Amino acid sequence: MTDKDSGFEPDHNVSHFAVGKEPIITIEDLNKWFGDFHALKNINLQVAERERVVICGPSGSGKSTLIRCINHLDVFQKGRIVVDGNELTNVARNVDAIRAEVGMVFQQFNLFPHLTVLQNCMLAPMRVRGKSKAEASQTAMKFLERVRIPEQASKYPAELSGGQQQRVAIARALCMSPKIMLFDEPTSALDPEMVREVLDTMVALADEGMTMLCVTHEMGFARSVADRVIFMTAGEIVVDTPPLEFFDSPDNPRLREFLGQILHN
Amino acid sequence: MIQSFDYNAVLVILSGVKATLILSAIAFGMGGFFGLLVALARTSGIKLLERLSSAYIDFFQGTPMLLQLFLAYYGLPVLGFPVNPWTAVTIGLTLHASAYLGEIWRGGIQAVPRGQTEAAAALGLSYHHRMRDVVFPQAFRLSLAPTVGFSVQLIKGTSLAAIIGFVELSRSAQIIASTTYKPLLAYGVAGIFYFAICFPLSMYSMRLAKKYNREA
């Protein structure tokens, strides 16, 4: 499959200038422990509206934990996170409100197996946004067309391939019209031949100006789509720089080692 | 005077069937309601609720049902609630059923993969909707077979109510046995009724278990 097949014509040079200045996510002195394990150490990070940030690093470096803190799937002990002007607290109502504005795509897709593809996409808009059935179904079909699987709408997730399931998961998140999309290793559980269709969908989303935080080891995606690439080890952000410097002149020895390892594979 | 084991005797036993079915249905219904609360408390993630519900389950699973009925029958009046056998048995069986159903459903809820709750949460669904729309439908399938299996235990367990003077199927058979002096016949008929109620339910439970094991 090529970019042309996907119907999207990415032009990263133009969209790069569209990046806004207002931070939509602000993370200050974030610290998280799992028992004795210090998983995140003094994380400071700002993400501007329409910005595309790729986070990578060795396993156990805290990259998934970091983005899972943004929608409170993981709780942090110290520091603060402000999403679109709302500070994240432990109050369920506040957490649910922020989650409604932040879409998330998981490594394991996590589609609801007892619901059809269409129902998967309609559930949250109806329950959270109070949309009517007709409205929710119309929005769902619109996004299923965007991820190019409208014909699967009445099937159950188990009848779909991994790549298709992940595209449904992206559509399901988009149906809530989120302001930010978080991707937690979205292609890591896919068979190699299905990685491309999911990446194409993500590229298209980036081109539309979606604010994106992606934890991924797809370095081709990082190079062509990201505004910034972040490298984490042992719970710390050690490199945060545009992709050009990140890949072409990495001055951090741990990053050089990491790139050497994953680019060889 | 010795009565003969006639049509009337069977009718008396049959009225016991009715009492057993009504008692079982009430115990199952109310036990189900409270059992759901127990299961939710047990999976709430709130330490205090989890400990309390866990202790509750342990108590009712760790003591004989007969003793639980005695406690309800003799204990409630001590606490200032005078009870007749009906009320005592209903309360005793409800508590018993809520503990067992709570434990069965806790298992069902926890068997739903964590990713499901996380995905529902990430979409902004409230706890209420996460449970109702995502967790329960999946937990229900997993719990259905053991739930039907437990209802069989509960129906048979209602026979213990006879000991505190509640007239259900076993007790009515006992009455007929002592008035006709034909205990084998009386208990035999009662046994046939129990079997006719419980066996189809057991079969159904096994079929459900097989069906969902195949699909899983």
UniProtKB/TrEMBL annotation, chain A:
Instruction: Provide this UniProt record's keywords sorted from A to Z.
Output: ATP-binding, Nucleotide-binding, Transport
Task: Write down the Pfam families for this protein, in alphabetical order.
Answer: ABC_tran
Would the keyword Transport be found if you checked this record's keyword annotation?
A: yes
Q: Name one GO molecular function term.
A: ABC-type amino acid transporter activity
Listed transmembrane segments: none
Q: Where's the ABC transporter domain? A: 25-259
Q: Does the keyword RNA-binding apply?
A: no
Residues folding into a coiled coil are none
Query: Its family?
Result: Belongs to the ABC transporter superfamily.
Per its record, how is this protein called by name?
Amino acid ABC transporter ATP-binding protein
Question: Which species expresses this protein natively?
Answer: Mesorhizobium zhangyense
